[in-house]
Amino acid sequence: MSSVADGLPANKRLPAVIALSLGIGMATLDTAIVNTALPTLAEGIGTDSASVIWVVNAYQLAIIATVLPFASLSDVLGHRRVYLGGLLVFIVSSLFCGLAGSLLTLTAARVAQGLGAAAVMSVNTALLRHIYPSKMLGRGLGYNSLVVGLAFTLGPTAASAILSVATWHWLYLINVPLGLLALGLGLRSLPTLPMTGHAFDRLAALLCAGLFALLVLGLGTAVHGAQGALTLGLIAVALVCGALLLRRQAEHPAPMLALDLFKRPVFALSSLTAICAFSAQGLAFVSLPFLLQAVLGHSQVETGFLMTPWPAVVAVMALVAGRLADRVSLGVLCGIGLLMLSVGMAALATLGNGASAFDIGWRMALCGAGFGFFQSPNLKAIMTSAPLARSGGASGIVAISRLLGQTLGASLVAFCFHLSLGSGPQYALWLGCGFALVGSVASGLRLLPYGKKAA
Predict the structure, then answer these.
(1) C-alpha distances in angstroms, 369 versus 64, 341, 345, 385?
(2) Sign of the four-CA dihedral 200, 203, 208, 209
(3) Which of 223-232, 313-322, 386-395 has the least mean pLDDT?
(4) Which pTM was predicted?
(5) Which tens digits make up the pLDDT trace of 246-270?
(6) For residues 88 and 65, what is the distance between their CA atoms, to the nearest angstrom?
């Protein structure tokens, strides 16, 4: 297809959106669905519960290490090619995951699957910017947030449903027919866009991968009580990679770590808002099962049901906020949403031992409403504050902000547990409350004259 000036025609928009929704939905679902099935996986491939964690870690590390390099590659090859290529890698690697017979082969296939997911995630929002007309972009990002919210919500249920009728292999094999459908629709409908003409910097890509992969590994070793020398060594090498990356791309017109875009106050504040919000979410999602089970005495099944209102309301509110984002100030919407999230997390932190399901449910729903109110408008703020030619770089920052926030939040939960095993969940929720407040303030700064500047 030819390039588009302001979105695809209405009759071609739907298949393109379905293609993107299937891709981002599978990439998101494959984290939630595998987390739930880890005990079954460990038994199926004959390994222990500690080792099988690498099935999750390999996927997440591959994504966080390569999402920005793939976003940069899309400026060279085009968003469409990177998305479809990533989708093809995801399909093939899902097949190999389903056929794996050992921890080693499954982990290797999960690395390849993570690379495919990173390519999909890196350009997802950039393509949405070209599929929807500018006046409907908020609505389109709302639909996208709905898909992600549903994937998180349905992950545990989908895993249980598959394992009730089939072996663990089908947790991955189910991606093959869905992926082929998305690939077919994408080949026919996704727009072909002008490329920047910049060369792809392979050394910068390696440095970028080293920066984020080693930083995440360093944070992980720190909170799991590893020797200080190992933690400091990993973080030091990560910082060296970051410094070399900035120096190498200092004069690049479209740097991989998009410092040119961070010179725009709206873009920088929106990215900070995203990191704070996803850190708060990460703190909550990791700590809440411990609060509900270890402190309040609920079973694992009850915990799943009690947590469902949060992602379910996120999915619903994403549609409402997406439509409002096309008409109301984005800074106001995000600020209100994160203030609601902060209040909801504070309310969860103060739950007493006799809390009823209703007491827990309305607090979860308030958090979900606040997070859903923030997500779509903030996505629009990030994407529209970047030049159209830098949509790939902006889309990469969207993905890395989410991943860094979630990783930081999960790591800080372990830190809170080290401070106090008994009160760790409450400490984590109070810390998440603080992150949400900082995000709300950062969002509000976009309403000031300085925060409104384009560059």
Answers:
(1) 27, 8, 12, 25
(2) positive
(3) 223-232
(4) 0.82
(5) 998 888 878 888 888 888 889 999 9
(6) 19
Using one digit for the tens of pLDDT, what is the confidence trace for 416-453?
A: 887 776 788 899 999 999 999 999 999 988 887 755 55
Task: List pLDDT tens digits, range 151-166.
Answer: 876 777 788 788 888 8
- Take residue 366 and report the two structure tokens written for it: 């308030």
More reliable by pLDDT, 128 or 87: 87
**Residue keyed to tokens 């379905």:** 18
What is the residue type of 284?
A
Q: Residue 393 in contact with residue 386, Cβ under 8 Å? A: yes
